[in-house]
Amino acid sequence: MAGAPPTKAQPVGRCSLMAAVRKVLIQGAGIGGLTLAAALGQRGVQVDVAEAVGSDAVLGVGLNQPANVLAALDEIGVREACLNIGFPFEELVLWNPLGEQVAAIPPPDGVYAKPSNNAIGRPAYNQILREAADKAGARIRTGVTIWEMHEDADGVEVELATWTGKRTPPIRDAGAGSNRYDLVVGFDGVRSKIREHLFGDKYAPAFTGSANWRVTLPRPDYLKHIVVAFAAGVKVVLTPTSQDDMYFGLVTPEPGKPRHAPEDFLDLFRERTRPFSGRLGELRDSITPDHTIVYTPLEYLTVREPWFRGRIAIAGDAAHTSPPHMSQGAAMAVEDAVTLAAALDQHDGLPDALDAWYRRRRDRALFVADASLALLKQENGDELTAADHELLRQVVPNAQARLFTEAY
């Protein structure tokens, strides 16, 4: 692909005999887990995926796919499918609180092909990745989670359990046997049980003091880029996710991490967007009780030591999660996945493969997490550290230039 990074994983449709692993278990069927399942399956690896949440779970609203993640998705053959169903665009547009454009920021040039961005609905994105993993031969089970793991020099013995919801403990499958794997990878989110298995209670997500609100609406003809506007400490983000749809997002201070009742979401959304008018006010006023508003407290976590122990590893939000201020959080999970598959392909031994993968990913992923948090703190007027000030010397366009010009 023209403009692709210089180091690529195994081409789609061509199997390889992996030296490091033959059978892998992935906990988590989100963006990163499904990407890894597809990448490994395309190389002839036997892949099982365990997803605790059922297939009918809410997968979120939407997100942006910057050029670097589109290149990574090309490695598993789904770039064009994402572009076809999503909304490609170039510029980031700034509006004032009256809904009037005041600036347009062009994307930086880099090593990746155009378009520079593609926004997409989260359920559609998940479906594309699920189909790629299925086609690659991955076996995906929903409503299950890891019950026990026992590792020895030759593998990991894993027993699964049924999981029925956030407020109920897993239920051990009566009479269930165990399966043996060469590698277990946790793409199981910010509250990762795999991370807890590796590191105990050493790492826990920290609340940033802010939260994200998002609601899907019909896309007006004038919305052809991501739009950002600020007023009274509230950040509005409008994102076209297809030719038909968009989402209206907010980032708001939420001191004390309140647990708002879902029945209050609409009134709270309207209250927080009261300073906005014009097109922004019209979009706000179009939201009705029939719309689903998603409210997510924003958290931050970084694991600053190797993301693996023996034959068990973590990636994506389990290893590094942050506010969405660089539109790169999900992209980092995809990059984690394709580079892990490449490392397993390129190294004869598992320890060497995991070490090479971690060293390749560490600085890039932690830069995104740290810079995203610094941007949020700056927007909120929070106290900044010397490290924050250094990161903020690279404002968003320059920070993205770094991500667009470096190969993942």
From TrEMBL:
Residues 23-366 form the FAD-binding domain. InterPro entries: FAD-bd, FAD-dep_Monooxygenase_BioMet, FAD/NAD-bd_sf. Keywords: Monooxygenase, Oxidoreductase. It holds the Pfam family FAD_binding_3. It comes from the Bacteria. PANTHER family: MONOOXYGENASE, PUTATIVE (AFU_ORTHOLOGUE AFUA_6G14510)-RELATED. This is FAD-dependent oxidoreductase. The lineage of its organism: Bacteria, Bacillati, Actinomycetota, Actinomycetes, Cryptosporangiales.
